[in-house]
Amino acid sequence: MRRKDLADKEGAARASAREPRQARGRERREQLLDAAAALIAESGLAAVSMHAAAERAGASIGSVYHFFRDKGQMLDALAERHDAELQPAFDRVLQRSDAEWAALSPAEVVEQLIGWAIRYFVRHPDALATLDLHDQTMHAEFRAVIDRVMRAKLGEELGPQAATTLDAVVLGTLLFTREQDPRSRDVVVAALPEMMATYLIALEAKRKRAKR
């Protein structure tokens, strides 16, 4: 889920951000990351700079450079922080069995498979800005989970069709929300779970008719 430049040679060669050992240092580092996140939420990625983060956090510029070599390293640290927060939830999705997914209602499937992630990204615009939504490894893993769940829920004929559609809708929505103002973004996100659940209900009905 991390930014694409982490996979580039330049990003791989970049030293890791300094991890403070003392509680006070860890608190200061988190304050600087919070400041960068707030700047992104308010004005976008271009608003972030070492000086802007220092000013927003009420810290000296020297304090920022103590923890981060440059803006890129600070953004990498933001992405890593979101990785750490998202992974446990994604692990729970992976651990649910096919039988458990099949027993859920369409609304429950949407919520437990997708809804939580979309709401997280909307609450954290800096995650949308710093995580690489086009990362092929991440996308392939998520796509495989959707495919498995849809096959368990809808069978081998309709499952792949539903998986392709939901995958496109989720990625498209995340990319859309990254570019929109909060009012437009919130309207779309609020309507999305019900729309996807309605789509799954229709496919379930189609599957039942085909079995008659």
TrEMBL record:
Keyword Amino-acid biosynthesis: no
Domain HTH tetR-type: start-end pairs: 26-86
Region of interest called Disordered, as start-end residue ranges on this chain: 1-28
Pfam families documented for this protein: TetR_N
PROSITE patterns membership: HTH_TETR_2
DNA-binding region(s), chain positions: 49-68
The entry's keywords: DNA-binding
Name this polypeptide is given: TetR/AcrR family transcriptional regulator
Organism: Bradyrhizobium aeschynomenes
